[in-house]
Amino acid sequence: MDEVVHRPTKRSKPLPRLSHGQEAASPAGSSLSRRTLIPSSGLTLKMTNFRSFFALVPTVLAAARLEEFYDVIALKIETGQFSNWQPSRYIILSMWNFEFSVSCDKCFVPWSLVQDWVIDMAALSSQQFTGLYEATVRGEGPFSGFVFLIHMRLKDPR
């Protein structure tokens, strides 16, 4: 995907801080309907496993909070706020009580994969999906042999 077909969402407030163990305020007026996608790494994936092992309740409140969480991650990728992070085979993003992680044992995790995933999950959350989950996705074509593990869980309270 070389052509950007979306425009960035305009915000009146700064984005919340996203890091390990820090609380953050949610962005006002979040919307995933119009996005600026980062350049694709050319990664083609096929989901081979998705297991939701717990659903948060009350559903309406949890879904809204999850959607905000995913939206913040997508916006921070979109605006380059993770661009100074060193490439890594394991990315953990946490805010509020949520922890989202993506890992691969053979290559660095591309931010385009993270962005695509969180945009899709935000859309599912807007439809009341509140599951905590683990997923396995495999690369195809030139990325054949790469396996990415994706987890959404609650942070350990310790």
Compact description:
By secondary structure, the protein is α+β, with helices and mostly antiparallel strands.
Task: Give a verbal description of the structure.
With 158 residues, the chain is α+β, with helices and mostly antiparallel strands. It has one domain. The protein has helices at 59-78, 111-125; strands spanning 44-55, 90-95, 98-104, 131-140, 147-154. The protein has a five-stranded antiparallel sheet, with helices on one face. A hairpin with a 2-residue loop joins strand 2 (90-95) and strand 3 (98-104). The radius of gyration is 15 Å and the shape is globular.
In round numbers, the mean pLDDT is 76
Number of domains: 1
Shape: globular
State the low-pLDDT regions, or none. 1-39
State the separation between the terminal residues, measured CA to CA: 42 Å
Order of helices and strands: EHEEHEE
Give the strand tally: 5
Number of helices: 2
Task: Name the quaternary structure.
Answer: single chain
Tell me the β content: 25-35%
Instruction: Kindly name the structural category.
Output: alpha+beta
Cα-based radius of gyration, to the nearest Å: 15 Å
- Helix content range: 10-25%
Strand ordering within the main sheet: 1-4-5-3-2
Largest sheet, described in full?
5 strands, antiparallel
